[in-house]
Design brief:
Layout: H1 5-11, E1 42-43, E2 48-58, E3 63-72, E4 75-78, E5 81-84, H2 93-96, H3 117-122, H4 131-134, H5 153-160, H6 176-181, H7 203-209, E6 227-233, E7 242-252, E8 259-269, E9 275-284, E10 293-297
Parallel strand pairs: 2-10
Antiparallel strand pairs: 1-5, 2-7, 3-8, 4-5, 6-7, 8-9
Bound molecules: calcium ion (4 copies).
């Protein structure tokens, strides 16, 4: 079923998603129609890069922070350049408009089956072969995501064969949905530590940096690479382990409905026997100043939405 990962990888990164959110300073709403958007946008070196602070994150009771990934889902880097992804589904506009695929750059759920475009793309469905997915039946509850990894239960059970109750099915440290976005296999535990480009940077590290896995990192693309700093802070009164999570060097692209920033905060139990994922998102206004610092407070900032919901679609 995952035979199209090769196909995906050829196209660059993937994605899934949706949109939501309320706004505040530096953060905007999605409620405006997208009528002013232009397809096929490509930006070279981004004009702006920001840093992002998730303040006072505390792991769940009995758990500790395992890893952190952050992506700006409004772009995908491919062929050394930033490619706009208007509907944030991980498929850049450049590919979304391919008539062979039969998708659209304006909707992450453009197919009637309810599985989402990323899942269809990862499964190899094209406009002429979408019936291949339909034979499995429709996804009757496309909004149900039990493990909060950004993939619906029905997409996981019916199409992907991943575990709908485990956000990292193969246990390689990369959440299932991020594996799809970046063209890895959520059922293959060996791919995280490999280097698809052969440049010595592992696939897991590349995903953290939001760089394409199958292109060697260059001095130019490294300008886009996210940097992480996880700073332990004092335990709270429930004795949970707490951190300030700092991510620097996040490009911001021109998008009238803002840039959707998705954070994947993974936790593991202290014995390492169980894991869980906090997949959260917020929107950063594209008019934000270069070098700005966006700060959200864990469980307190209303614009920092956890879990980042599924199925709220963007349509023109
Ligand atoms: Ca797209
Ligand atoms: Ca899921
Ligand atoms: Ca994985
Ligand atoms: Ca994997």
């Amino acid at each position: 079923m995952l035979t199209r990962f090769l196909f995906i990888s050829r196209q660059g990164t993937l994605a899934f998603l949706i949109a939501v959110i309320m706004g505040i300073s530096g953060v905007s709403c999605f409620s405006e129609p997208l009528s002013t958007l232009t397809v096929l946008q490509t930006a070279r070196i981004p004009q702006k890069r920001i840093s992002y602070l998730i303040q006072s994150y505390c792991a769940s009771s009995g758990m500790t922070l395992s890893d952190l990934f952050l992506i700006n889902s409004s772009y995908v880097i491919s062929k050394g350049q930033i490619q706009i992804d208007t509907d944030r589904d991980g498929i850049p506009d450049l590919f979304d408009i391919d008539p062979e695929l039969g998708l659209t750059p304006y909707s992450a759920f453009s197919l009637p089956d309810g599985f989402g475009d990323l899942v269809a793309f990862a499964s190899g469905a094209t406009k002429t072969s979408q019936s291949k997915l339909m034979k499995y039946g429709n996804c009757t509850n496309p909004h149900l995501d039990s493990d909060g990894d950004g993939l619906s239960d029905c997409a996981e059970t019916i199409i992907l064969k991943t575990n709908p109750n485990n956000s990292d099915t193969d246990g390689d440290g990369i959440p299932d949905e991020l594996e799809l976005r970046f063209g890895l296999n959520p059922l293959d535990p060996s791919d995280a530590r490999l280097s698809a480009a052969g440049d010595g940077i592992t696939n897991l590290q590349k995903i953290k940096m939001q760089l394409p896995l199958r292109e060697s990192a260059t001095s130019e693309t490294k300008l886009y690479a996210h940097e992480y700093e996880l700073v332990p802070v004092s335990k709270n009164n429930l004795d949970r382990l707490c951190f300030d999570l700092k991510i620097k060097n996040i490009p911001i692209v021109n998008m009238t409905d803002g840039n959707l920033i998705i954070s994947y905060i993974s936790e593991k139990s202290k014995e390492g026997s169980s894991s869980r994922l906090n997949r959260c998102c917020s929107v950063v206004n594209d008019r934000i100043e270069d070098g700005a610092k966006v700060s959200v407070i864990w469980e307190k900032s209303p614009e920092f939405v956890c879990p980042c919901p599924l199925g709220i679609d963007l349509k023109r």
